[in-house]
Design goal:
Radius of gyration: 26 Å
Distance between the termini: 51 Å
Structural class: alpha/beta
Helix content: 25-40%
Bound molecules: zinc ion
Strand content: 15-25%
Largest sheet: 7 strands, mixed
Number of helices: 23
Oligomer: single chain
Amino acid sequence: MLRVRLAGILIAVVVLTVSAAEDELLPGFTRESSTAERQWEGKFRAIPNADNQREYMRRLTARPHHVGSAYDRQNAEWILSKFKEWGWDAQMETFDVLFPTPKERVLEMIEPVRFTAKLQEPPVSVDPTSNQQSEQLPSYNAYSTDGDVTGPLVFVNYGLPKDYEELDRLGISAKGAIVIAKYGHSWRGIKPKVAAEHGAIGCIIYSDPGDDGFSSDDVFPKGPMRPPDGVQRGSVMDFPSSSPGDPLTPGIGATADAKRLAVKDASSITKIPVLPISYADAQPLLAALTGPMAPRDWRGALPISYHLGPGSAKVHLKVNFNWDLKTLYNVIAKISGAEQPDAWIIRGNHHDAWVNGAEDPTSGQVALLEEARSLGELVKQGWRPKRTIIYCAWDGEEPMLLGSTEWAETHVKELQEHAVVYINSDGNGRGYLNVEGSHTLEHFINGVAADIKDPETELSASQRDRLAAIARAKNAEDRQEVRQRAEVRIGALGSGSDYTAFLDHVGIASLNLGYGGEDEGGIYHSIYDDFYWFTHFSDKDFVYARALSQTIGTAVMRLANADLLPFEFNGLADTIRLYLKQLKKLADDTREATLERNKQIEEGVFNATHDPRRPRPAPSKEDVPPHLNFAPLENASDALVVSAQRYHSALTQHWNKDVAARTLQDLNRKLMQAEHVLTTAEGLPRRPWYKHIIYAPGVYSGYDAKTIPGVREAIEQKRWDELNAEIIRVATALRGEVELINSAAELLERSGR
Ligand SMILES: [Zn+2]
């Protein structure tokens, strides 16, 4: 369920041409092994073929292939047969999970005029797969609760907590109402959650043409954008507050004999009914609203006056689902390591879609498949990885990361012991290389991106990203950083794809990679995300699919073959220092804003400036946030900087001289724990499934990452009493990381004596 995010773009600082980088020693390799590795990588990168990728996509997207459909299983079996054909040791691993599908969907306006929503995406004659209606899942939000509600309608902008604060100020309540929210600006499941918290009884989510419709470009099939009847399906499972994966087996694998909760006890199902609709269906509802005008920046691109309601518009929403268990088909394929079979490099991309799913997920899946074929080719030519490579084609990602989460929960013990890195991709398109992930891999992945040629510009992927980042930087300070930072900046991982369980729950260093940013589209999770759309409006010659295969395949080979695992800590230390700076600023800003607002309330500013004809009651005074003691975190962060530098100089001085095999083994064992040390057994407050102290999806943002989440969310949610304990918990985990890095540095230092 990708969304392209520009914030995560990789910024490489040292300008290296593709050829100049070639005699540089690869991180973690000796002179001799680096040369051999570069030769094999060169052979590898010549193999992926864009025409093959186009044919895989044609095959995989020929019919709808959501969880539980016949074609989902047939695709999994086809993928399995391909892996076997290419020489992999491959098998199917199945789970049985709760996956609701719609039985009944009704949305109608009963006052002041009658209107019944169509809830139907029509076929388009030029698009040959858009007419497979008997196999398409109807438009709906998975894990909405059943419900039959009637009430006044209220427009809530994007349905975020701050939108409800604004509604409060305007004297409008969502209590007892059915709210209508625009898609965007948060993950969709946040909208019904926040609506329910404000007393709403139902939630409608629609795609406004101002966000992904005609205001950007022509609509499909003339252009790439969302047509009037196009609907974004999607999961609304409340995974950020509980956990992703099967709602009936939280924290354990959904195997045949697993102990399951009753559906009524599953905490990640929404509290109120939810239904997604098109803007053709939304327009009559919105046009019937009266009440105050919506604030200017809430208004979309429909040719109507956007009122907030409630007024006389009354709506009836009824949804009922089949609450069945469905079988997931994960394909798991292996090439065993020749020297360290018990160290695993894991790579995954999902294969299930909401409908035909060409962009999401097949554009990423075809990259994974060409990597697998190419690695198989290398094995035939005599290549063997040192470590074991495991490729995973996940099922059930769309409903909420079901296949990857259940697999990770089932194998948690083995993963903690054996997994080195997890590399994910999802949808892929034309443009820049987006990199998000563990900052222990920042240095490593920059090296990979420097060796990949961008298909359109002939620059390396990292050069192109760096130059794009300079163009995009908002001010001189940001530009300065892009130009001067000796290392690379990568984005933090929130959620929204299959890396979540690996990073957040198990504590495995993870990366999410994909190209994109040049083409716009409005077909996300609709019947129009298909082969016709992709081959007309996206990476139509598949050159970026090929580039993604080259990028990730190179990363996998390098990780599988490095003598010393290429984790580095300067990037991590610098990033933690940056996050800490942001947290202190957030705390200061929150304090100052509260002080200022209280002062203005006392001065009578709000009462003096509101328009008596449009009453806007003054907010009430709030307690001023206390000053916080960040010292434990600052001290831990400083210590991390020192230990990271120590490791780096130990590496510079002693690596590639005389590190004994035994020392190397000890070092690798330590480095494999470097991400796990950043987790705690008890997990985050109120959501113990999330164990990482640096990265998590936001409770009120969803996919967007919250960095140092225990502390950041306590500030955002004004849980002041929780903060000092959280600061100490994070500081303690960082101290553990410092200790591990120091002991690794010491091993290197001693080896040089
Ligand atoms: Zn996806």
